[in-house]
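Q: Hi! First time doing this. I have a protein sequence and I read that you can turn it into a structure. Is that right? Here it is:
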Amino acid sequence: MENMKTNGTETKLTKKEINSLSKRWIMGSQVTWNYEKQMGVGYLWAMLPIIQKLYKNPEDQKEMMKTHLQFFNTTPHMGGFILGIDAATEDSEGIKAKETVKGLKTGLMGPFAGVGDTLFGVLFPTIFGSIAAYMGSEGNITGAIIWMLVNLAILIFRMFSVSIGYREGCRIITSAKDKLNALTASATLLGITVVGALIATVVKANVTATFVSGEISVNGQEILNQIMPCLIPAAVVGSVYWLLGRKKMTSTKATLIVLALSIALHALGILG
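A: Yes, that's right. Below is the predicted 3D structure, encoded as structure tokens:
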């Protein structure tokens, strides 16, 4: 079996074992989630074959199992990088790396969660999910295909994250830090732009009221369009966003409020 190489040095772990580590993390990271250890059990389950390979002394195995069973929680999509760095560190240092591994896991799970939650929890679903949902609502099957391809791409990314972390080792922390920050900022800007465009195309709210003065009749929507096109949809979205920031306000309550106002304003002939 061909051994992996990090920084030109042959290692004890093989490519097959690193790929297995990746698969076990994908399968077990959230299946074993609990309120006490959160992802700790899944982390241990993923690392178990690595522990058995690197530590022949049963006492050393127990020590590392206890280490990996400690509290751990991050974005599952980014956790592979941490496992890869962990595996590279243990492969190089053995049982002496125990305290280093503890520090790595504690120090990285927060920052990686910040990036991962932004990208995989908010931005990608917002951008691609909104586009796919809009196309689907128009009867276009391309929307469903886009959503499936996005999730497939994310799965492929997760498959390679462990091997990247293992190959780069601790260098990934410093080398990728600035790039990750720039990527997060760019993706945030792109997400806001897409949401702004979707407001104008998806939210349907027009003023149907007509203002009459003598022989002059002016449509209310025409006046608003001269001020700013799609002003009402933007105001609706802004109001809902403000509502969701209030105490004890939930998305269900906000939906019911919008529904009630829509029915009332339509009945009065103001909105259509």
